[in-house]
Amino acid sequence: MQIINDQNHTLPFLATADHFLPLGKRQLRGSSMVFSNTIREALHAGGFWLVMQDSDGQVAVSGGDIVTYAHITNIDWLSGTQIQVDVDLKAWGCIEDQVQFNPPRLCAKIIPLWTTNQKLPENDILFVRLKQWLAEYGYQSPLMVDTSADFRDPCWLCWRWLELLPLPLKIKQRLLKRTNPKLCLRYLKIIIHQSDLYTQVLR
Fold first, then answer.
1. Residues 5, 121: contact at Cβ < 8 Å?
2. Using CA atoms, how far apart are residues 70 and 92, in angstroms rounded to an integer?
3. Chunked in runs of 10, what are the mean pLDDT values of the chain (203 residues)?
4. Which among 95, 112, 111 has a CA at the least distance from the CA of 11?
5. Which residue from 88, 92, 138, 195 lies 20 to 30 Å from 25 (Cα-Cα)?
6. Dihedral of the CA atoms 29, 111, 97, 67 (nearest 10)?
7. Cα distance between residue 12 and residue 142, in whole Å
8. Is there a contact between 68 and 4 (Cβ–Cβ < 8 Å)?
9. Could you tell me if 170 and 58 are in contact, meaning their C-beta atoms sit under 8 angstroms apart?
10. With contact defined as beta carbons under 8 Å apart, do 26 and 146 qualify?
11. 3-class SS at 156?
């Protein structure tokens, strides 16, 4: 059973430093008891929430924070030293209620994904730099970016860059809580431009 509607859903959750966002297919790996129990519960519950965790251990579990809904498509319990879980990320939610940590469960409401009719030109800096990054590093990326995806879709591009860039958790959440990708696009372009200028100075 896959859950995608605008109701509140209390589901198991996993906190991860990999900030996976909608419209992607990902693989999660783990070997802890918490991980395996959460995956077992998620199978019965119809999915689970992915919660953002910062490198310093801070977790985005306050009311109003954005989480990603993960639907399990395949589980490999035995092939490797870790359990491998393939998930489809088609939706996100907004935390509605207090988080329960033992066992880990949270209540969030599925909210509409960003949408726009705008298409970015192929010379847009976000489009160009992501293509370059994939050509250089994509083979070792945990993001498994679908090369058939629409790279000119501003929403899709914002989500992929927010997955890739090590931005502070608070900034990512602030950008995601907007009703459209406009602010995120502006912010990301500033970051990429600054990075390009810094690289030129070093050369």
1. no
2. 9
3. 78 94 92 94 95 92 96 93 94 90 91 93 93 78 62 93 93 96 96 71 38
4. 95
5. 195
6. 20
7. 22
8. no
9. no
10. no
11. helix
